[in-house]
Amino acid sequence: MKYNEYYKSFKKTIFSNVFSVINLLGSCTQYDDITQKTLEPLNLSSFIKKQLKLSSEIITLLKNEKGINLEILENTQNIKSFEQVEEILARANIKKAKEISKLMSQMDLNNKSFTKNNIELKKISGVEIENIITDEIDKQLSQSYFLKVGSCSETYRISQDRCGRDFAISTVVSGVVGALTAGWGFAAGMVAASISFTTCLMDADADYNRCRESEN
Questions:
Q1: Among 204, 205, 175, which residue's Cα sits nearest to residue 189?
Q2: Which of 25, 80, 90, 214 is most buried when burial is the number of CB atoms within 10 A of its CB?
Q3: Long-range pairs for 118-125 at CB < 8 Å and ≥24 separation?
Q4: Helix 126-140 to helix 44-63 angle, to the nearest 10 degrees?
């Protein structure tokens, strides 16, 4: 498959995962004024940079977790706070639940700061928001995972990078849309993105093991 064809196919898969998260958030409503006056104003570039750093920290923590109970995460409903998120993660056998919840909470503050200082987001669709954010993420992330793969180890590394990019796009897009939506959509979106990321890593592990078996 040529690079452009592969890239389009991959982005289509990423976008379908993003929209599955956005659907959890409901439709956008009138933007409520945010009262946290201490929030730091963020432009698009600095916003994405901060969110990628935080999502990368979450990814590192999730990668080191063993025996995550996906069934508990999948059956989560009516999330009202990040304290509740921490409890859910802990019940799902995630040892670093507190640290991950804190990082998610910081991402939420960044979302609110960004949307507060970019009120024009109210006037555009979720698809347009997704395209703007994805383009900026692509500028800031390495494109190495689109290169032709070779060994099983290299394929495994690239697969993990793709999982990370998927997670970053899902969390940032759902966060911005969630900040423009009533309720705790972002918290629910983060749990959903964590499920997708964990499943993606499991698939990468399985593909790696099959690849090694075929080499022997």
A1: 175
A2: 25
A3: 118/44, 119/31, 121/31, 121/176, 121/180, 122/28, 122/30, 122/31, 122/180
A4: 80
Q: What angle do CA 9, 14, 19 make, to 5 degrees?
A: 125
Tens of pLDDT along 117-144?
888 888 888 788 888 888 888 888 765 4
pLDDT tens for 175-190 read 887 777 655 567 777 8
Give residue-wise pLDDT tens across range 8-52.
Answer: 444 444 444 444 433 433 333 333 343 344 445 568 889 999 999
Residue 6 domain flag: no
136-170: burial string, b at 16+ Cβ within 10 Å, e else = bbeeebeeebeeeeeebeeebbbbbbbbbbbbbbb
Amino acid at 124: I
Residue 12 within any structural domain of the chain: no
184 within domain boundaries: yes
Instruction: Give the residue among 152, 165, 137 at the shortest CA–CA distance from 14.
Output: 165
Domain extent at residue 120: 41-61+77-215
Give the count of domains, the chain. 1
Q: Name the H helices within the chain.
A: 3-25, 44-63, 70-74, 82-91, 97-116, 126-140, 152-179, 185-215
In a domain, 3, yes or no: no
